[in-house]
Amino acid sequence: MPRIRTLSALAGAALIGMTFVSGCSNAPTAPVVAEIKDTPGPMSPPVFVLPVTLSAEDSVQPPILIISQRVDGAVGGVVNAGRFRLTVPPGAFVGPATITIFVPDPKQLGCSLEIDPPSANQFRVPVLLEADCVGAQVARASDLAMALWEPDLKVWRVVDGSAVDAAHWNVHAGLEHFSRYSVVETKAGW
């Protein structure tokens, strides 16, 4: 009987995994054009953005990447996950917290960031998110930006202060809180 239970558990886990993976085709990081609607708020002005993809040769990480690390908010720290690097400066939040970076698809430059406890998710000092964009399927690094997914509007919005180190194909932005983020190609004037 233990072998049957083990096989049943494996089959159940496989079914859940297939359901999770097959559901990713409609994920916010899927490569689609997203229209940014003109809404008031503290974020950057509306632009048209496209989540950026990588060439197949540049995708060396596993299909799904989840990295969790404990960080003391008073001390700060660094969490790396594939092409993403998160730098928490000292004093960003109070006490220890577990930071998770979830990268659902190595062909997309997108990730979800989480922190536990959730009460730590409003930072006193911005947390720096960086993305290594070498191999991105865009003509110029200067067209890249970091964007935040707005689920209510179903759009990507460029994060205020997003910047590019064009020589190194690195995009970075200071974050006030964790959510879903993606490197996007901005095409002002489309």
Relevant terms:
190 residues, mainly beta, Chondroitinase Ac, Chain A, domain 3, five-stranded antiparallel β-sheet, 1 helix, 11% helix, disordered N terminus
Brief synopsis:
With 190 residues, this protein is mostly beta strands.
Topology:
Layout: H1 2-22, E1 49-51, E2 65-72, E3 77-81, E4 84-88, E5 96-103, E6 110-116, E7 127-132, E8 144-150, E9 155-158, E10 163-165, E11 170-175, E12 180-186
Antiparallel strand pairs: 1-12, 2-5, 3-4, 4-7, 5-6, 6-12, 7-11, 8-9, 8-12, 10-11
Description:
With 190 residues, this protein is mainly β. The chain has one domain: Chondroitinase Ac, Chain A, domain 3. The protein contains one helix and twelve strands; from the N terminus they run αββββββββββββ. The strands form two sheets. Strands 1, 2, 5, 6, 8, 9 and 12 form a seven-stranded antiparallel sheet that branches. Strands 3-4-7-11-10 form a five-stranded antiparallel sheet, with no helix packed on it. Mean pLDDT is 76; it is low at 1-50.
Helix vs. strand class: mainly beta
Mean pLDDT over the residues: 76
Percent of sequence in beta strands:
35-45%
pLDDT < 50 stretches: 1-50
CA radius of gyration: 18 Å
In CATH's first tier, which class applies?
A: Mainly Beta
What is the 3D shape?
globular
Number of helices: 1
CATH topology: Chondroitinase Ac, Chain A, domain 3
Euclidean distance between termini CA atoms:
63 Å
Q: At CATH's second level, what is the architecture?
A: Sandwich
What about the largest sheet?
7 strands, antiparallel
- Series of secondary-structure elements, N-terminal to C-terminal: HEEEEEEEEEEEE
